[in-house]
Amino acid sequence: MTRLVVEQPGALALVEDLGRPGFARLGVAASGALDRSALALANRLVGNPDGAAALELLVGGFRARFDGGGWFAVTGAWGSVRLDGRVIAPYTAARAREGSVLEVGLAERGIRYLLAVRGGFDVPPVLGSRSRDTLAGIGPEPVRAGDVLEIGAEPAASVPVVDVDVAFPPPASTVTLALRPGPRADWFTDAARQALFDAEWRISEQADRIGARLVGPALERRQQGELPSEATVPGSIQVAGGGQPTILLADRPVTGGYPVIAIVAPGSLDAVAQLRPGQAVRFRHA
């Protein structure tokens, strides 16, 4: 059986798949890879089903050794990927030999790599998913140096000769995200709702898998007072009492007590996963 022996996990390495939807009533978020399209692409490059478990690598700085050969692919963030010191082209499948060492350098564009191996990482599922939920603390523990990750059986599909997608690095400049109206947009003044679209926002240092706080003008409420806790979805933009918005992500609480002014459209959520602290963000109507 092929295994991956982790020598250096980098800032944060998590096993993630497409998540565990359907458990919000139990207080469990779907979780899963933040950049779902990068996960699907990495899996497709090695012939896996789209939802096979992969590693989500924050920033990079990852090194591991293959115990047994196998195919792998790295997508998402854009940076140096080397196998036994040889540079691997971005967003391509490559074959490792017994004892090959894979090194994923610090990301130059974007912030989260997705590393897929042919067969997927075979870790025990929790509630039907192999994803780590960093808020609830369920699913596989974060990967540590010395961990040995088992790799599953070969899938039926072969490794494709050519993939249909053209690979582009995540943008380093301003990213524009599509928004839909939130359920509590009427809690905010007309000026605040306009400012959401007129202002240029920045991703703060307070950004993780739970949510990404934005830095910009304070969004003024029209309606004050407490809001009973209500359901949230990925992409909900909650606005706390100080007027600063936060985009809730995959590991968010499934309910929240701050009003949601808008919701990032599903087609823009993968872009949020690759935003770096300090990067500029603008919004448009979906």
UniProtKB/TrEMBL annotation:
Q: Name one Pfam family in it.
A: CT_A_B
The answer on whether this UniProt entry bears the keyword Ligase reads no
Q: Which SMART domains match?
A: AHS2
Q: What keywords is this UniProt entry annotated with?
A: ATP-binding, Hydrolase, Nucleotide-binding
> What InterPro entries would the database entry show?
CT_A_B, Cyclophilin-like_dom_sf, PxpC
* Domain Carboxyltransferase per the UniProt entry, residue ranges: 25-286
Which regions span the lipid bilayer?
none
One example of the protein's molecular function in GO is: hydrolase activity
NCBIfam families tied to this protein: urea_amlyse_rel (TIGR00724)
Task: List the PANTHER family hit by this protein, alphabetically.
Answer: 5-OXOPROLINASE SUBUNIT C
Record's protein name: Allophanate hydrolase
Task: Tell me which species this is from.
Answer: Agromyces bauzanensis
Supply the source organism's classification.
Answer: Bacteria, Bacillati, Actinomycetota, Actinomycetes, Micrococcales
